[in-house]
Design brief:
Blueprint: H1 2-22, H2 30-57, H3 62-66, E1 70-76, E2 79-86, H4 93-103, E3 106-114, E4 119-127, H5 139-158
Antiparallel strand pairs: 1-2, 2-4, 3-4
Length: about 160
């Protein structure tokens, strides 16, 4: 019996010393170590609560807010492959980009879009038969038109 009790006491003492080490406690007795550990745990809990509150209260990081949208346009045989990515998403962004395609007389023949946390669009479009006022539609014209549509939307949202 004495041996079993001695093992339990030794194991408890070892665990208390580990706890003392982890919490950087200078307490000499078991009660002091436990009190210090409780305070340490409460401090950690408060830090976690503050960090969670900061995350909830703060807007998206400034990097996300200030990062410009990315638009890439590849020329295909009879149209374009257009990829749009924006860290910010809004209900009108997809409509705005599609209106830009329409102004360029581009018909979307296939598209995949996601507007959940950010905005992503991959679209394949072909040119219509109408002339758009003499301006040649090339990949750079499409890219600039999509970027301008996004800027116009962002400007109208801040007013």
């Amino acid at each position: 019996m004495v041996s079993r009790e001695h093992k339990r006491t030794a194991a408890l003492h070892e665990k208390l010393q580990q706890l003392r080490s982890i919490t950087n406690s200078h307490a000499e007795n078991d009660t002091g170590i436990i009190i210090h550990a409780s305070k340490y745990i409460e401090e950690l809990r408060q830090k976690v609560d503050r960090l969670n509150q900061d995350i909830v209260n703060s807007p998206q990081s400034s990097y996300t807010q200030d990062s410009p949208p990315t638009v890439t346009v590849e020329t295909l045989e009879k149209g374009f492959l257009i990829n749009v990515y924006s860290a910010k998403s809004s209900q009108r962004l997809l409509v705005s980009v599609l209106e830009a395609f329409e102004e360029l007389n581009l018909t979307v023949v296939q598209a995949r879009a996601s507007c959940t946390d950010n905005f992503q669009l991959e679209a394949i479009s072909v040119e219509g038969n109408d002339d758009i006022g003499g301006e040649m539609v090339d990949a750079e014209v499409v890219r600039r038109a999509v970027l301008q549509a996004i800027r116009n939307l962002n400007t109208s949202n801040t007013d």
